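Please fill in the sequence for the structure shown.

STRUCTURE ENCODING:
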């Protein structure tokens, strides 16, 4: 099974949206933040119908492709970086090996750190400004580089171009991390890369949902209630499963709860300021008030009850009967009188008025006065002509028993009705009693007043001779009596402890009423919080679905299967070349977005053995270098590699091996080496020449009393080999030729003396580099006897040429003081040129001896 088939079999078991995302990735589609949100939204919708054959039907193994190589061209425009000189440019050959030489303190590390800040490196160092400057300006600098054949620029301080991530940098600190920590193998089979990309998409979707969760994560506002009450218990237990019926029950509220709360607040305030003795007196007064009201209601029932009504009806009936009898007698007696209705109530009133008036005008006579000369007290006319007789008949009628009975019955009725009207329904003392009790039990006055109003209506109806409505007070009187007894019992049992309990109970009731109101008003908040919890539960469920752990584990499994073995083999090859024994490279763990991590370790060592504790400093450096080269092996782009002092702390026996590997790499990609090691520089050049790998020189210098960071295209004299020195001599003589005209004799002599000194040093470098050094194997510290044949091929003529040239040069050099009598003349430019030709030809001859 191929890695691709392995991936497709596994992804088919994953959620539909991951299958679709992988298909999109495989088709070359770029999935970014906008798509993450779209995918996240789709998780909460009904899954769409997949294409025919499933989401993975269109996924096929792609043709393998490699990233374009990245090569570094220069570092330029440097400002305020360490103390590096400004307006300098450090260039690099785009092919082969470029060795940048600089002594300690020359600024070499500053340039290396600029590169390190932009390329892939397992350790980064801070890029500091000039620590001696009082106010250093903003740092700047840029790296120019090629991606394939296109030039790009990346500026210091800004986000580095992602393409520069293909360039890898190694220094001593990076080597330490390979020794002590885990490394990621950047290489991925294309199928595993698909899963890496899917993991990135899944993590992006997860971030989106997590953002939604965060937005819903904060609890919403809920009604503020007493922590100890049932409302708080309900709110704390609110979940997605809380039903509408449960919310209905929790927010139910009496219609008069606001009034009850107001009363309860007053009651609590009263209890806080009251004392038990005063409270007892209050209860007794309340009981007395209830007794007074109950007694008054019972009295009203007696005053306006059915018995009184029956008596009133009897009086009315008696008065009516007596009046009817009187009316009948009047009709019989006075039927012939000129006016009718004699004996009627109106007439009787008139008669009574006449009698009263007669006693005023005829005080000495009885009524009616009808003697001669008397006049009628009503019409003021003489009683002659029958008037006197008529008055006598009237008087007899009024004095008759029938009339008297009618009058007595009428007066009895009127007196009863008058007494009934005078009976008060509500007295002042009763009103006071009602008002005082109403303070502790609002609504009491209204309840009693309704009974009073009923009695008033009954009273008015009875007086008006209408049928009165029944008024029943027995139940109310019984209730008041029971309340009275309760209050008296409560007053009798009251003490300080009981009073404190009543206050606590009243406060609890106040809180309960407040909670009821808060829950009633806060129902929308409760429903909103339940809705939030429901949304959060759905989000959490989908958030779990976006966990990348399964993908990471699968990437780790596939990496072990398709990468780890190759990585271990490569690491073993590198350590063998560096003569490291019993170390290996093994997988450690998986990490989301990183694939499988690897780490160097001992092979078959006892538990707890640590590389740093066992290996020497040189072995540790070599191990770090091997780890770096193992990662480099998996870089299919063949982009540039940068080495900053790669043999620092490395023992001399492994330097040649490191140089060989660097030159090997330079044969297939750009390699840049920063070094301050002259011997290593020589080895690199020699190895590059032997392998026919392009070798470019660059230098970084420190100028006295100015500072570091000045760049050159060549190595300093001390770091040049014999061939380089010959070339440098030709350049020095050519420069002398250009400036000879106009020079003073002393200046010209000093110039030729310096060139002669360099010629002398070049002869010495030729002898040591071409003849002496090959005789000694510095790895084994022994003489290579086979190399003696090179010396054997040196002819007598060669020796004479050397002797003659060295003698002439010595005469020109400044270390010999010419005698004044000799009239010394410095050599001409042509003479110097000829001498350089001798050096060059002699060097080439000896090198031919080595090759034959």
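FILLED IN BY: designer on duty
SEQUENCE:
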């Amino acid at each position: 099974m191929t890695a691709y088939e392995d991936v497709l079999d596994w992804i088919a078991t994953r959620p539909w949206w991951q299958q679709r995302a992988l298909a999109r990735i495989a088709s070359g589609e770029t999935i970014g933040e906008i798509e993450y949100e779209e995918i996240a939204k789709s998780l909460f919708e009904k899954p769409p119908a997949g294409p025919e054959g499933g989401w993975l039907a269109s996924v096929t193994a792609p043709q393998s492709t490699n990233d374009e190589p990245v090569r570094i061209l220069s570092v330029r425009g440097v400002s305020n970086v360490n103390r590096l000189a400004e307006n300098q440019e450090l260039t690099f050959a785009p092919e082969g090996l470029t060795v940048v030489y600089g002594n300690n303190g020359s600024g070499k590390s500053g340039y290396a750190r600029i590169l390190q800040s932009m390329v892939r490196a397992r350790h980064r160092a801070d890029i500091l400004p000039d620590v001696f400057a009082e106010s250093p300006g903003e740092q700047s600098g840029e790296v120019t580089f090629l991606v394939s054949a296109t030039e790009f620029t990346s500026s210091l301080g800004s986000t580095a171009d992602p393409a520069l991530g293909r360039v890898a940098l190694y220094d001593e600190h990076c080597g330490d991390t390979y020794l002590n920590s885990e490394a990621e193998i950047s290489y991925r089979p294309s199928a595993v890369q698909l899963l890496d990309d899917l993991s990135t998409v899944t993590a992006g979707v997860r971030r989106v949902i997590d953002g939604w969760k965060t937005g819903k994560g904060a609890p919403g506002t809920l009604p503020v209630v007493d922590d100890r009450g049932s409302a708080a218990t309900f709110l704390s237990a609110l979940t997605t499963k809380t039903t509408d019926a449960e919310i209905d029950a929790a927010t139910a509220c009496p219609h008069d709860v606001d009034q009850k709360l107001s009363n309860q607040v007053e009651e609590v305030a009263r209890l806080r300021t009251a004392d038990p003795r005063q409270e007892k007196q209050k209860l007794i007064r309340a009981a007395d008030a209830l007794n007074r009201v109950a007694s008054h209601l019972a009295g009203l029932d007696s005053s306006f009850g059915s018995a009184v009504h029956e008596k009133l009806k009897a009086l009315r009936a008696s008065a009516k009967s007596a009046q009817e009898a009187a009316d009948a007698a009047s009709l019989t007696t006075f039927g012939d009188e000129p006016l009718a209705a004699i004996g009627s109530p109106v007439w009787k009133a008139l008669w009574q008025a006449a009698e009263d008036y007669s006693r005023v005008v005829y005080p000495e006579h009885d009524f009616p006065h009808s003697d001669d000369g008397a006049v009628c007290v009503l019409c003021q006319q003489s009683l002659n002509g029958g008037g006197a007789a008529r008055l006598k008949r009237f008087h007899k009628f009024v004095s008759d028993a029938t009339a008297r009975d009618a009058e007595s019955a009428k007066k009895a009725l009127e007196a009863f009705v008058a007494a009934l009207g005078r009976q008060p329904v509500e007295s002042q003392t009763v009103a006071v009693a009602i008002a005082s009790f109403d303070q502790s039990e609002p609504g009491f006055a209204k309840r009693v007043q309704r009974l009073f109003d009923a009695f008033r209506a009954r009273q008015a109806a009875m007086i008006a001779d209408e049928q009165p409505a029944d008024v029943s007070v027995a139940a109310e009187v019984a209730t008041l009596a029971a309340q009275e007894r309760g209050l008296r019992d409560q007053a009798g049992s009251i003490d300080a402890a009981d009073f404190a309990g009543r206050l606590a109970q009243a406060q609890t009731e106040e809180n309960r009423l407040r909670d009821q109101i808060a829950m009633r008003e806060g129902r929308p908040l409760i429903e909103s919080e339940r809705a939030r919890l429901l949304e959060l539960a759905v989000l959490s469920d989908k958030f779990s679905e976006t966990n990348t752990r399964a993908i990471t584990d699968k990437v780790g499994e596939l990496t072990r299967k398709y990468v780890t073995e190759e990585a271990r083999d490569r690491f073993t090859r590198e350590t063998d070349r560096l003569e490291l024994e019993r170390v290996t490279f093994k997988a450690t763990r998986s990490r989301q977005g990183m694939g499988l991590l690897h780490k160097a370790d001992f092979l078959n060592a006892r538990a707890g053995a640590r590389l740093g504790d066992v290996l020497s400093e040189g072995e540790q450096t070599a191990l770090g270098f091997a780890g770096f080269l193992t990662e480099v092996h998996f870089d299919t782009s063949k982009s540039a590699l940068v080495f900053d002092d790669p043999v620092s702390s490395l023992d001399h026996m492994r330097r040649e091996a490191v140089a060989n590997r660097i030159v090997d790499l330079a044969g297939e990609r750009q390699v840049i080496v920063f070094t301050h090691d002259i011997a290593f520089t020589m080895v690199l050049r020699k190895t590059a020449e032997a392998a026919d790998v392009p070798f470019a020189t660059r230098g970084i210098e420190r100028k006295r009393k100015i500072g570091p960071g000045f760049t050159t295209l060549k190595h300093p004299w001390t770091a040049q080999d014999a061939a380089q020195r010959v070339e440098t001599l030709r350049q020095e003589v050519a420069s002398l030729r250009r400036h000879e005209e106009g020079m003073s004799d002393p200046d010209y002599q000093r110039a030729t003396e310096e060139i002669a000194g360099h010629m002398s040093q070049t002869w010495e470098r030729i002898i040591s580099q071409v003849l002496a050094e090959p005789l000694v194997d510095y790895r084994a510290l022994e003489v290579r006897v086979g190399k003696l044949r090179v010396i054997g091929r040196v002819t007598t003529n060669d020796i004479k040429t050397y002797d003659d040239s060295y003698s002439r040069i010595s005469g020109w050099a400044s270390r010999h003081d010419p005698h004044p009598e000799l009239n010394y003349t410095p050599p001409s430019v042509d003479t110097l040129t000829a001498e350089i030709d001798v050096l060059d030809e002699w060097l080439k001859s000896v090198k031919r001896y080595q090759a034959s």
